[in-house]
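Quick start: what a row looks like.
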Amino acid sequence: MAIKKIKTNREYRRSRIKLRIKKVVNGTNERPRLTVFRSNKQIYVQVIDDAAGRTLVSATSKVEAIANNKVTKIEQARLVGRLIAERAIEAGINTVVFDRNGYLYHGRVKSLAEAAREGGLKF
């Protein structure tokens, strides 16, 4: 992943963290990568097989069951974590490698990861 022209210090910091993480974290067919993207309003999760270069399972907070709930963003992330765990286990995926994608492990990212663990995913 090449570093592109970055506008703010925050984006530069996150891109450096992403590079450090990507050196270590790789998804395989046996143990795919669970990656998180969070925007200001939504949260997105994908289970990716990096060897094949394809997404196996995904979940988002835009799903009607989650989007229609009037809950905090942390609770919304928890619901997405449970949803990704259900979908991954349906697809036959039990163990994953967690990729926080440059975000700090607290708040929405932490609640999503904990909910996915409670849902049955191992990482």
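That is the whole record. The chain has a mean pLDDT of 91. The first strand starts at residue 33 and ends at 38.
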